[in-house]
Amino acid sequence: MSIIYILCIEDEAEVLDVIVNDISALEVVFPIEVGVTANEARKVIDEILDNGDRIGLILCDHVLPGENGVELLVELQGREETKETRKVLLTGQAGLDATIKAVNKAGLNRYIAKPWDKEDLVEICREELTHYVINTTTNLLPYMGILNAEKLSEAMRERGLPSDA
Amino acid sequence: MRTKRKTGVNKVRLAGLALGFIGFLLPFFIQFDGLSFAGHMALGIFLMAASFWMLEPIPIYSTSLLVIMMQVLLLSAQGPVYMASSLPETIPVNLQENLWQIPGSALDNNEAVYIRIDGKKTRRVDVEVTETREDMAIIRAPGLTEGDVIVTESGHWLIKYRAAHYSEYFRTLADPIIILFLGGFMLAGAAVKYNLDKNLTSVLLKPFGKKPMYIALGLMLVTAVLSAFMSNTATTAMMMTVVIPITAQFPPEDRFKTALALSVPIAANVGGIATPIGTPPNAIVIAALNQQGISIPFGEWMLLVMPIVIILLLVSWFTLGYLFPPTLSEFKLKLEGKFNTSAKAITLYVIFGLTVILWITEAQHGIPSSMVAFLPITALTVTSVMTKEDIRSLPWDVLWLVSGGIALGVAMDNTGLATWIVSSISWETLPKLMLLLVFGLVAYMMSNFLSNTVTATLIIPLAISIGTSGIAGEGFNLIITCIFVGIACNIAMMLPISTPPNAIAMSTGFLKTSDMVKVGIIVGIIGLIVGLLIATFVWPFMI
C-alpha cells in the first residue's frame, strides 16, 4: 500500500512550523512534507512519486519567492499523478485574479484565509483527505480511525466493498 | 525523511505458493494405499487449493477458478489425462473348466480382475487364485466366460473411477445455489442503489427510543435482519454510518462506543446465519447437501437456525452491556430517512417483498428458492431498476469463490478422496456428540483465521463423506452435522481478520483488539454450546 503524504508549502519558517504543528494529529497516517519554494516543493513531489507514494493534500501559500503558489497548483492539476490531489490555498495575499485562476485552472478545493483557526484547519484537512481516499483508494479501512469514518462507511456501502468471503 | 520501503516479496505469500506447488505434486510421487489414481490427482488439487486459500498467495476467488480449471484438465473425461487414455487389455487363456491363466498384474489384491467393457469402462469379477508363477497367475473364476477381455493393470487410473463430463465441473459456476446468491446480490445491490437499506434502518430503529441499551438492541436486531438478506459486510458498512454519529455524543471515557462498534459486526455475522443467502458458507452447506439429494427449503433453514440466532444476539447484547456499560442515560439518534418514491424504487420494493415472501413460503408452494431467485434477477433487469453498470458491480468474485468450493467438494466425492481421508480415523468409537463437537470446534478455530467460506469448503466435504460412507455408524445425521459446521464457520469472530465486518469495526478506532477477542470468544463458545444443544435435542425432531 502506498503512503499518502500531506505537503505544506510556505516560505515563512515560523508560519510553516505553526501549520505543521496544527495538523500534526494527522501525521500518524499521513506523513507531512514541507517546501519553502515552488521549486523545492516540486523536488519533494517528484521524490514522493518516485518512491511509489502519493500526495493526498497540498496546503499552499500563494506568495512565494520565485514562482507563486497558484502557478504551481495549476501545474500539478495538469499532472496525471497529482490531478486527484486535494488542493488548498492557505494565504492572506492572493488577489482576485490569482484566486479565480486557482479555482478555474487548478481545481482548487478550498481557500483558507490567514489567520486561520486551528480546529477549522484540521477539519478541512480531514475532509479533503477523506475525499481523496474515497476517490483514489480501494481499501478505505486504514483511514477510518483518523478521517471522516461516516463518509468512508457510506462510500464502502455504495461500493459494496469489501464483500463477504 | 522518507526511506525507500522494502519491496521484497512477502514471505507468507511465497511460502503459500511453494506449499501449494509441493502439495499439488506430492500425490504424483507418493502412492497412497486405497486411493485411486483420480483420487491422487484430486488430493493434489485439494492440497494446492488448501495452501492457496489459507496463505493467500493469490486472491481466494482465483484459487477457486484454478480448482475448476485443474479439475476440468485432470479429472474430466474430456481432459488430456482421460481423453486419450484407454485400458490396456489381454485375453485370458482358458486352461480348463473355470480355470484361467492371466498376467499377475491384472489381479486386484489377489481377489478380483476387471473385465474390460470398452476403452474406459470395466466390470469387477471376483476370482480365486490357485497358483502364481513368475508374472503369471492361475485363477478359478466362474464369472469369466469365453471371449471376455480383461484389463492387464488392475491399478490403472481408469479403474474405479468414471471420469465425469467436464461440464460437471463448469456446471458449479451456475449451480442452483449460485443462482440463489445472485438473486440475493441483485436485491441487495438494488436496495443500496435506492437507499432501501438506510431508510428501512431508520424506520425500524425508531421504536427503540433513546435509552442506550435499547438503541443497542435495536441496532443489533436491524443489523441481523438486514444481513440475513444482504452481505454481512455491506450491512456493517451501512450501520456504521448510523453508529458513528451516535458515538460522537459520548464523553471520551465512555466505553459504550466500544459496545456499539462491536454490536454491529457481531449482529451482522450472526444475522448471516439466519437465511440460506445470508453468507457464503451457507451456500457451501446447502450445495453439498443438494449433491446428496437432500434439499433444505429456505423457510426450513430459517426455522432450524432461528433459535441459535436469537439466543446469540441476546447473549452478545447482554455481554456488551455488561462489559461496556453506558454512562449517558439517553442520546439522540439522527434518523432522517425518506423513502424513494420513484417508479423504479417502488418496483424494487414490490419485487423485494414478493421474493422474500416466496422464499420463506417455499415449503408451502414447493417452488425451489433458487428458481424464485431468478425472479429478482429477471424482473430487476426487465424493469431497468438495475442497469448493466449495476450488474457489473455485483460481487461476482464471491460467486466464483463459492463455485470453486462446490467443485472441490464434487471432485472429492467423485474420486473417493473424501471417503479415503475420513476412513483413516475410526469414527464409530467417537460418541456422536463428540463428533459434532470436533467438527464444530475445528471449523470454528479455522474460520477465525481463514475466510469463512474457505473453511466451510474444506470441512463440509469431509462431513459429507462421513455421512455417506456410513463409517460413523448409526445415529450420524448428515444434515445436522453440515448445518452445525456452517454455523461454526459463521460465529468465528475473535479477531479483526476473522470476518470483513470485524475489520470494519476495528478500523473505527473505538475498540482494542483485546475487546474484540474477549467478546468474540464469549460469543463463539456460547454459540458452539447452544448450537450443540439445539443440534442434539431440537433438530432431530424438526428434520
Layout of secondary structure:
The complex is a heterodimer of chains A (165) and B (543).
Chain A: E1 4-9, H1 13-22, E2 32-35, H2 38-50, E3 54-60, H3 69-78, E4 86-91, H4 96-105, E5 110-113, H5 118-136, H6 149-159
Parallel strand pairs in A: 1-2, 1-3, 3-4, 4-5
Helix pairs in contact in A: 3-4
Chain B: H1 11-29, H2 37-55, H3 60-74, H4 80-83, E1 89-90, E2 93-96, E3 99-103, E4 112-116, E5 122-126, E6 128-133, E7 136-140, E8 150-151, H5 167-170, H6 176-193, H7 196-205, H8 212-229, H9 232-247, H10 256-271, H11 280-291, H12 298-323, H13 343-360, H14 362-365, H15 369-382, H16 388-392, H17 396-414, H18 417-422, H19 432-449, H20 452-469, H21 478-490, H22 500-507, H23 513-537, H24 539-542
Antiparallel strand pairs in B: 1-8, 2-3, 3-7, 4-5, 6-7
Features:
heterodimer; A: 165 residues; alpha/beta; Rossmann fold; 5-stranded parallel β-sheet; B: 543 residues; conserved putative lor/sdh protein from methanococcus maripaludis s2 fold; 4 domains; 4-stranded antiparallel β-sheet; two-stranded antiparallel sheet; 8 strands; elongated
